[in-house]
Amino acid sequence: MINYTEKIPNNVDLGRDRVLQRALEHWQPAYMGWWYDVGPNESHNYEVYLRTAISVEPDGWAQFGYVKMPEYRWGIFLQPRDEKREVNFGTHKGQAAWQEVPGEYRSTLRRVIVTQGDTEPASVEQQRMLGASCPSMYDLRNIFQVNVEEGRHLWAMVYLLHRYFGRDGREEAESLLARRSGDADNPRILGAFNEATPDWLAFYMFTFFTDRDGKFQLCALAESGFDPLARTCRFMLTEEAHHMFIGETGVSRIIQRTCEVMKENKVEDPSDVRALGVIDLPTIQRYLNFHYSVTLDLYGSDVSSNAANYYTNGLKGRFEETKINDDHVLSEALYPVSEVIGGKIVQKQVPALTALNERLRDDYIREIESGISRWQRVIDKAGIPFRLTLPHKGFHRAIGNFAGHFVSLDGEVLSEEAWKKQEYKWLPSLQDHAFVQSLMSGRVVEPGKFANWIAPPARGINNQPLNFEYVRFN
Ligand SMILES: [Fe+2]
Ligand SMILES: [Fe+2]
Hints:
Blueprint: H1 18-38, E1 47-52, E2 63-68, H2 106-126, H3 137-164, H4 166-178, H5 200-221, H6 227-265, H7 270-275, H8 281-297, H9 305-312, E3 334-341, E4 344-351, H10 356-381, E5 406-407, E6 413-414, H11 416-426, H12 430-439, E7 471-472
Antiparallel strand pairs: 1-2, 1-7, 3-4, 5-6
Helix pairs in contact: 1-3, 1-4, 2-3, 2-4, 3-4, 3-6, 5-6, 5-8, 5-10, 6-10
One fe (ii) ion binds next to helix 5 and helix 6.
C-alpha cells in the first residue's frame, strides 16, 4: 500500500533513507513553484474530481474525490519487487536484475531517465492554456487528471535520479524544472514536446498519438535490467492508459458530432460543414497527419548504434520483450528498414540489433492503425463516404532515413517544390488552426453541457452521470 501519512507519499520506505528524503523534500517546493508557474492556468483554487492511487495494484485506482490540484498527493510509487526477476535480454541475460546502477552504464542510464522525465512536465506546459476553452466540465476534469499524472511521472523519474545518481542526478532534477516547452533558449529535449498544443483537437490528437509514444517508451524501459526503472515504468503505464483513452474518445466524439451534423443537414462540403460550427473531416485528417508524423520522429533514427548498445547492455528492451520467442540477444537476426535511394523508397535488411528504434516504431504503428479503424467505424456507421488514412511512414519526417526528403502522404518522393505546393492539403494551415480555435473561444462549464463541436462521451467518470459537477470553480 501507499503511505500517505508522509510529506511525500511513497511505497519505497522513503522514511528509512533520511538523506534521500531530505533531498526530495528540498526539490518538492521547487516542483510546486514550477506547477504554480506553468501548470494549468488559473486553476489553483478549483476543486477537481480526481483519482488518486491508493495502491500500486492494477485495481488500485479506487479513490476518487475533490482535490485542489496544488494539494494533489504527488508521490513515488513503484510496482513491488519480484525477487526472482532477471535481466531478460542482451549480454547480461540471465543475471539477477540490478538493484543498483552498474557503474559502466551510469551516464547512459541517467540520459535515458532524463529524456523520459523531460517529456512529462513538457506536456503540462504545452496544455496549460486549454482550460479556458474546454468543451465541458467532464473534459476539463480529464485534462487536469492528465496534467497531475504527468506531474507525477516527473516525480517518478526524479526519484530515480535522486536515489541512484547522486549529485549529477540532483542537478538533472533541477534542470527538469528549468527547461520550458518551446523556449528558444532552454527548450525541452525532444521536438514534439516543443510544439504548441493550441486547441482541444490538438490535445486529443496529442494524447492519442504522443502519449502512446510515451507508452511504448515506458514499455521498453519496463523491460530494463535496472530493476527500479522497470518497476517505476510499470506503474506509470497504468496511468498512461487513461491518457490515451481520453485522446481516442476525444477525437472519436469530435468525429461523431461532425457526422451527426453532416447527416442532419445533408451537407458534405467542408465549408458548409464548418458553417454549422463543427470540424470538417479533412481538417481532422490534417491534424492526424501532423501529430502522427511528429510523433514518429520521437522513436529516433531507423538505424541506431545507441539503441543497439542500450539493448546489448540490458538497459532498454523491446516492446513485450519477454513474450517474444527468440534468443533475446539478436546476434544474427535482421530487420527491414526503409531508405530513400535515387528518388525511390526501398527496403533493406539490417542487423535487428541496430534497428530497434524502427521496430518499436512499427509496434507503435500497429496499435495506431487499430485506433484509426475504430474512428473510421464512427464515420462508416453514419454512412458518410470518407476514409481516414495514415500517412506513409516517410511523410513529414525530420529524424532518421526520411529526414531531408519530401515524401507525399502515399509515399511518393517529391521535389521540395512539389511537396510545398501540397503542404496545406496535407497539414493544418494557419487558417485551419484559426477555424478550429474560433470554435473554442470560450469554455463550456455548465454541468452536463457540451460544446457544439463534440458529442458527449458514452459515460461519465467513475460511473458518475454526465451532468456531475466534475470541477468546482469556487
Ligand atoms: Fe507521462
Ligand atoms: Fe501521459
